[in-house]
Amino acid sequence: LTHGLCVQVMWNTATHMEFIHDHADYGFETHGVKFNWRVIKEKRDAYVRRLNEIYENNIKKAHIDVIRGYGKFTADPQPTIEVDGRKYTAPHILIATGGHPAVPPDSEIPGASLGMTSDGFFELEELPRRSVIVGAGYIAVEIAGILSTLGSKSSLLIRQDKVV
After folding, report:
1. pLDDT digits (tens, 9 = 90+) for 43-81
2. Structural domains counted in the chain
3. Is position 47 within any domain?
4. What pTM value is reported for the model?
């Protein structure tokens, strides 16, 4: 939930910047417009915290059990999942796998430890003057677009096995 909301907020922020760039074409004078990364970061983080609290409260009100840990389905005849050695059976089981990016070791890709994952993007305290985004997935493309629109000189690196 957090990752998607953060991207959406930052995408909306970049959209506002695009509108500002186009204002002159519609007769608006926008001299002196400044963007403050820290303001949007604080407001975005507060918004996500508030929504997460609402969702957690709604889950509690609905008497839904949230079980955190590593789980696997069992061979039991009824729908059963085992999490950290304890079995849970229910007519409906939702597994929200989540995910965490993997950073290769420097021995595999020299300098990999100098970069950050997409999670690190949301921890940035200020807009970087320059940025290099590695990858061609939708998150990489969105982040490159957001950073570029907000004023970071951005490059997107895409690996290819053959010359196109």
Report:
1. 999 999 999 899 999 999 999 888 888 888 999 999 999
2. 2
3. yes
4. 0.74
